[in-house]
Here is the input.
Amino acid sequence: MPQHGVILGVNIDHVATLRQARRGHEPDPVRAAHEAELGGADCITVHLREDRRHINDRDVDRLRVACNVRLNLEMAATDEMVEIARELRPHAVAIVPEGRDEVTTEGGLDVAGQRDRMAAVVAALSGRVGTVSAFIDADERHIAAAGACGFHACEVHTGPYAGAFHAAGGDFRNAELATTQTLVAQAGRLILESGMRFNAGHGLNYHNVRPIAALPGLSELHIGHSIVSRAVYTGLRAAVSEMRAQIDQASGRR
Ligand code: PXP
Here is the structure.
């Protein structure tokens, strides 16, 4: 089926987190990927962390073969990860900052402060993987730097928006919430004007996704925690399908 709406990338790291709680064999991320595909995922996203705390090397190898949709590999800009991505050749790579002690990705990548390194990473990946995106805060300095480094896309960190949405109970009369959403929208415009694709993700859930999905020119949303959490009650296929319906309705493009 041709894709013509906002692409939904389902992050299945937490399926592997659950497996690692017993250091066992289930649940299997490959089976989760198939369920997500059947629920309407256009892309499977996994973060291969330096410490392999959830997704491991065998998972990404198996997913690369078994996925029927695009595979998006989130990774730090290290030599080890660049080598793995060059061998794996996923459809997309998202460069993210990585801290050993963080529970999840905490902030955007400092592209402006590491231009040479980022440009070298993009050059090493170009031609070996489909698209390379930078996970950044909604900050024009990093957008300009990402364009200069040759990134094909920027994924805007929606964590601050998600936090403000929760604090305000979803009331857009709240200045903090309105501001955080405007910042994502402005970043999106600038990314598109700079000739890159506009993606977004982090902290998005069934309550807060619509105002982001409705932003003009948005290409992709990458969502994990809320979908896997809902799957505990509904199953993954239904959880993805519900998110898919919300995104499609809000974006009006499917
Ligand atoms: N995008 C990026 C770059 C991420 O690092 C993550 C978390 O792994 C997500 C999206 C998904 O965030 P969440 O799990 O909060 O939906």
In short: Strands lie at 7-11, 43-47, 70-75, 92-95, 131-136, 153-157, 197-201, 218-223. The longest strand covers residues 70-75.
